[in-house]
Amino acid sequence: MELNKNKILSLDIETTGFFGQGGSIIEIGIVDLDLDTGEITEVFDSLLREERLTEEHGEKPFGWIFQNSDLTLEEVMDAPLANEVFSKVQEVLDQYPLGCTAFNKKFDFGFLKDRGLKIKELP
Questions:
Q1: Is residue 63's pLDDT more than 90?
Q2: Are the beta carbons of 54 and 43 closer than 8 angstroms?
Q3: DSSP of 43-66, one letter per residue?
Q4: Which helix (H) or strand (E) holds 123?
């Protein structure tokens, strides 16, 4: 496994709601930023289905993402299981020793750390 010593990651998740309300992660996307060239490259993007996801997640108070994007609950119900996706995400995270950030780190990383992912957070 080759480490990316001059690159950092930026991660984004989509969910069906907030962490404290029982929201479910439904998509994870990751790009890397080459600190030497400024080039941004997509390195991971996947829908996923957590076991907690039910038809209820398509309705209020959940479901905002389905009402405000082109994603459908049916697509997510057919997505790969979360544990499969999480293991692939962890492999990506482990290849970037400088670490990872997110637009809303507290939100995104809170969900992912709760699901067992180990993230080297950038300040």
A1: no
A2: no
A3: EEEEE-B-TT--GGGGSTTS-HHH
A4: none
Per the listing, tokens 């482990």 go with 94
Q: Is the pLDDT of residue 1 over 70?
A: no
Dump strand ranges (E) for the chain: 7-15, 25-34, 40-47, 100-101
Q: Reduced to 3 states, what is the DSSP secondary structure of residue 97?
A: coil
Structure pTM? 0.92
The partner residues of 42 in beta bridges, in order of sequence, read: 31
The three-class DSSP label of residue 120 is: coil
CATH number of 7-109: 3.30.420.10
Q: Torsion-angle region of residue 87: left (phi > 0), alpha (psi -120 to 50) or beta?
A: alpha
CB atoms within 10 A of CB 59: 13
Which SS3 state, helix, strand or coil, does residue 104 take?
Answer: coil
Radius of gyration of the chain measured on its C-alpha atoms: 15
5, HSE (Cβ side, Cα atoms, 13 Å): 2
Q: Three-class SS of residue 117?
A: coil
